[in-house]
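Budget justification note: compute hours in this period were largely spent on complex prediction jobs such as the one shown. Inputs:
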Amino acid sequence: MRRNYSDIAIAEAIAILGCVAFFTHLPEPVMIVLGLSLFAAPGYVWSEVFLSPRTLGLERVAVAAGLALMVPVFGGMGLYAAGIPLNRTAWVGLLAVVTLVGAGVALITRRRQRNDMPPRRQGRRPRWSAGHAVAFGAAALIAAGAVGLAVFSAETQKYAGYTQLWLAPLPAQASTASLEVDNEQGAPVQYRLVVRRRGRVTATWNLTLASGQTWQRTISYTTSYAIAASLYRVPDLTIPYRQVDNGVSPPQKPAAPRRTHP
Amino acid sequence: MTVVGRTPQQRPAARERSAAGQRSAAGQRSAAGQRSGAGQRRPTRGRPVPPSQKRRPTAAARVAPPSRLPISVVTLIASLGVFMASAAFAAGRMGYASSPWADRAYWLGQALIAAPVAERLLSRRPLSPGGTATLIVVLTVAEYLLKICYSPLSFTFTDELLHWRSTVNVLQTGKLFTANWGLPISPRYPGLEETTSALVSVTGMPVFVAGLIIAGIAHLLFICFLYLSFWCFTRSYRIAGIAILVYNATPTLDSFDAMFIYETLALAFLGLSVLAAWRTTTGRSGGERIRWFILALLAITATVVTHHVTSYMLAGSLFLVTLASLITRAGATARRIGALAVFSATAIACWVIIIAPDTLSYFKPTVEGLVQGFNSLQNGTSSGARSTSSAPFGNQVLEGAVVLLVTALLPVGWWQAWKRHRRNPWMVAMAIGSLGWLVALALRVGTPDGQELAGRTATFVYMPVSLMAGLALIRLVNAALARRWESAAIAVAVTGTLALLFDGLANGWPPYWERLPGQHQVAGFERSVGPEEIAAARWTLTALGSGNRFAADTGIYPALIGYGDQNPLQGVGYLYSTPAYTPAIARAARAQAVQYVLVDRRLSRSPPTSGTYFPGSSTTGNGPIPLTDLTKFNRVPGAARVFDDGNIVIYSLQGAQSAP
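Corresponding output:
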């Protein structure tokens, strides 16, 4: 009887290639294909260990996929218990080792089964007509088009633009704060930023920010007197467009102007 | 040997005969026998049916011609349905979310997906096991694609964001069991996070894409295992296919059971556990049974590690099968399944005691609510459950009709189970388990939050119910009267099944007010998480660090947990319900240790879409909140206004004093 171990050899090759790829910088698509293969390989080899050669079709595929999902669950717990951080090295190593061990066990199991069991019967291949193939292909294309349409419509969905202004003390340095403006209006915008200390203007910046651009300064910060920053959107320099402060004074701060996005 | 008596593992031996048979007169008998003869055998003890027991196909079955709707065409129509529904989603994003035409396009898309599949499964025309499996896979994949199309760029649903955060934490720290402020129990069941982290690590894909892949595979696996299990229990892939079709009526199937949440992965393990448990009792050799037994132990353990409720349901199911085995005097089955049941209960107890002791406190409110509700029912007093649903009238009518339909199908299914399978412990267990339908109805009517609780338990209750309904449906379709008017009977059956499926969608998730994606809604769910909310949440993590105690509204709550890694609090409505920051409010805020208050000015423009502005709080009434109640923090001494984007303003209350 001719023995075929090519599937086990492929699984072993995937495990080794996965380790090799970890030390080299391969293109992203290659890494994705190789990574998915490495993720699936342990499930396949261990399904060869657990399942009888008589098990075919959906059941074999489903059990292999279930085992593939199980390996990281148990492997992650084992690594964590061993004090090994769950980083990329650990995951690649885990999947490769489980695949190689499983391949070894599968080889032994298959040899033993081959000796006392008839070879796996190949299922009768379904007849495929050109019409069915075209229909399935068209279905796949339409489904991909549906997802593409969803992605496109979500990416181009129109949201009201916004401008963020914040004044937050830096976590490690209470005497300094980060003052930042972020323009997400979808178009370049001119701003004037005014900082007041004890009610007096101490700094002014005229800013022109492209959409998505952020402006940032570090300023001295304290809670012993009032610090406030008002952002005006040119040309309206009378009513602040955005306001932040350190909450100290004045005791009766005016209510923030009620604004809507343009 | 008819296909009726074949289980998946027996398939190869009979496959060629079946395939050839479908091309010949004899084969037509065989193929037709699959449809009409399912369940028409003598009761068995869970062993393969010998060829001598096969039934002669009926005359009507013999003349069943091939279907005019090939599976490839069904797949093509389903893909058109996906495209139609995706176009409806796109229309919603373009501002037509409230348009009746967009809504109709969505439902037309759903009908295109479900109707051809239902017709092929319910029809008496020849259908191979592979064809049945393909139809089920097409239905499941099509619905999952719609889930992706609904939110194709990022996770937006609350629970998905919670698990996204846990996964990111694992990737960033390399450790398990890190804190998750929104769902503290989830890191204690880290199966989903481990699996996703592994995939992200080996492929370099974003967490969102990896999460979609893991959730999609797990969801499809669950359905496939369920189909295989039903096929094994009934020995009829046709009944199994119809049962899976009915199972698609589960309101949570295409939402909670397909989302990037821990239950989705655990359900796949549960399915494998059940299939492996069945195989331990029917394996051909001792070695084969041992291998399946080991596989069952692994799958049970994986379920326990991944999700609490799913593991409890699995243990309960195994005990139920043990009990049914004792009733049917299937001693070997009772011993093997009993051992698995004891193992699962032990594993659960060990996990809860050693790793996840928080589980007890997590379920305490739910259990107390249940007890209170049932006590109220017994005493005849009000349970606190809402007497009316807020859903549209059409949804309520559909829901009522489906309750009646399922309740009517169940006795027929029980009768069929008694008549054909009363010596099969698995089927007896399923029949007993389907009584859970009545318990779920009682839960829905009689307990506080019963509607939600019944919805969440539907995933498990519908499993035996769908199998009983499948038995009933196949009996009705095969009835002599139905055979005489086959087309009309199939049309009625397909219509009824579509009503079941549409009820699951209409009364499932997303809720009717977010059926289509669209512009921002105040205090909603998916439609309250947009770029502005995500940017604000990300800012909190960057500028303030993680784990800060936030007061925030329902809309931005999940984004604060997921993208912000913050600790938003429940029951904070009092902070937004008065025009002044009074000493009483200040005391309450200090008692809750509120560090930051997030104010969304849009709360003053619209009533809450979800019915409440703040999680766990109803103190703000139903109308829009007055703007003065929201802007009062501008006048609070010591309350720093640290962030302002026009709609969203964040105040630091750490130095705040009450109004003089």
